[in-house]
Design brief:
The complex is a heterodimer.
Chain A: E1 9-12, E2 18-23, E3 33-37, E4 44-47, E5 61-66, E6 69-74, E7 83-90, E8 97-99, E9 103-107
Parallel strand pairs in A: 1-9
Antiparallel strand pairs in A: 2-6, 3-4, 3-7, 5-6, 7-8, 7-9
Chain B: E1 3-7, E2 10-12, E3 18-25, E4 34-39, E5 45-51, E6 58-60, E7 68-73, E8 78-83, E9 92-101, E10 107-114, E11 118-122
Parallel strand pairs in B: 2-11
Antiparallel strand pairs in B: 1-3, 3-8, 4-5, 4-9, 5-6, 7-8, 9-10, 9-11
The chains are: A mainly beta, B mainly beta.
Amino acid sequence: SYELTQPPSVSVSPGQTARITCSGDALPKQYAYWYQQKPGQAPVLVIYKDSERPSGIPERFSGSSSGTTVTLTISGVQAEDEADYYCQSADSSGTYKVFGTGTKVTVL
Amino acid sequence: EVQLVESGGGLVKPGGSLRLSCAASGFTFSSYSMNWVRQAPGKGLEWVSSISSSSSYIYYADSVKGRFTISRDNAKNSLYLQMNSLRAEDTAVYYCAREAGDSSGSPWGYFDYWGQGTLVTVSS
């Protein structure tokens, strides 16, 4: 089955930049989406269609894509950004959705 | 305001069955594809199943195919997940999620609204 691979953890100091990668063979053909999940809460969409930001999401969240890897960048990280982050996409047919393995962002 | 409220979770023995429901409000339910996503304790998110706005297209993850059945009642603004032959590995919080899309019902492949989830525990 299709998989999306993320680093298990990323640590960053307040005000610095956090970058989270997500790799998958179908990413050149399918859009990627990113969700933030805090403990005990449902996920929240922070990036859609590789790099678009939903209304209400701070400008410090951005997304990019290059070949089989997509990246979520959090610029000027704040303590409130500490959370788990998941990429999501679909297989090459676009039929079956898949989530990445998840990355825990720790703000030092 | 869009609201999704799941119910029906609980403790069930291996091999048993459970039916989850998701009550939707605040949007035209019949115009959107809907999904179930689950999260095992301490683990990541796993997409489970999707159903198109008119129930014409239904898809399942390999892990639940043949055991779970997704359905919807647009007159009642409700989404369902019938879970049979439950296994310990089905233990998870189950989220109902709306798939973003346009007014014609075409889905865009991602989830713009989520419920708070309902916990399903499969244990003897």
